[in-house]
Amino acid sequence: MENANCLFCRIVAGEVPAVIVYEDEHSVGFLDHRPLFHGHTLLVPREHVETLGDLPVSQIDPYFKTVQLLSRVVETALDAEGTFVAMNNRVSQSVPHLHVHVVPRRKKDGLKGFFWPRTKYNSEEEMLAVKNSIAVELGKIKRQAK
Known about the structure:
CATH architecture: 2-Layer Sandwich
Number of domains: 1
CATH topology: HIT family, subunit A
Order of helices and strands: HEEEHEEH
CATH class: Alpha Beta
Distance between the termini: 32 Å
């Protein structure tokens, strides 16, 4: 189910360009265009749902398994000390489509409380290099799981 007015539905449909770092039959992960830190990834369900409460029960397990996978991959790919994983429901949800933020973190990185300074990628090449780092780590984890 797609919502023609939803930015994330349009990204999932390939109508709006995004740097995709993960996709399967349930969800799509892409780099945030206004990241807290480089590697900040958004994971959205393919189906248009606005909040966690709207996510069909059958989708909870695959969706959050992917959140867990991306938290490991982003941490390793960006040589981070940890990750910040967050979701808003309606309030502070800039796009009304369920999405989880997976953000690489380092001690003393400046992220305090709910003051979240945004950064930018210096170039498309820098953004693609981050995507490639994530893809390499994702490949390693998938090979280990076999």
